[in-house]
Amino acid sequence: MRLLFPELPPELRNAIYAETFDHSAPASSNGLPFVSKAYELAHTSLRITPIHRGNISLLQLQKYKFLEAREYFTQLVANNAELHITIVFKGHVNTFVQEHWNDKVTTHFKKIIKKFPWLSKVKRWDVDVFWKPPARTYGQGKPAVLARIMNGMVGTVLSFQDSSVRSRSGESRVVLHIDKMLACALWHQRLDLGLHCFLTTSVAVKREVREVCLDVEPESSRAAVGAGMVATADSEGGLVAEEVMVTRRILEDGESRWQVPERVAAKGGRWLPDAVWVKLVDHCGASGEISIVKL
Description:
By secondary structure, the protein is an alpha/beta fold.
């Protein structure tokens, strides 16, 4: 095994590694043994992508058998890496079979984790679910069907995080993305999607965030980006995500906190008609300790 710093003790090397972790730096998959994998499943698409904000050059020294590069990778996985999972639900709720989906996803995750066991040790898992079934199916299915499907899918993917990491220091952030058309259908058709049930369902992690977000861009300016992200072109031709948080629930050390936008009291502003916005927030059912967040 080759050495970069043969005279430095492990404690000092670890201190140097920690200094390279910059949480404000752009996220990247470069330097990781596993970069990304996408799957097309019945009714859904799924993408798994690990990211980090560490030193790419030091990570790439692993192929040259440097001890410090291996140590750095171990430190990064434990303290700086995140696993991002994107699910786009685009099928029909009445023909979606949760057990079949779970079996397929379980097979894929087991293969990946067998080859890259460090993925299960990543302490932060982010799950984004984009709810985009055909508009004609909005009023179909049993009450709270969205929550049941969401919780089933999220529970399946999060179950592959190492149980000791999950209970000791695990973090999860689960975001449901809905568009204006679905929000309006929620009001006009008096749908029961089970948003409160989704927000209040928990997994056994140290810190959990669940959130409902609204895509606020008009249909004409949308573009599909990467792993199911929704964005619009800015004045310079770049792509900028356009979403607004509706309600967020944070569960940490057994205590639950809710956050809602400052407009929650009455108005949807430029995003939605006021009555639709209020109904959407009402369906999220924030209660207990609620703080107002400026957008």
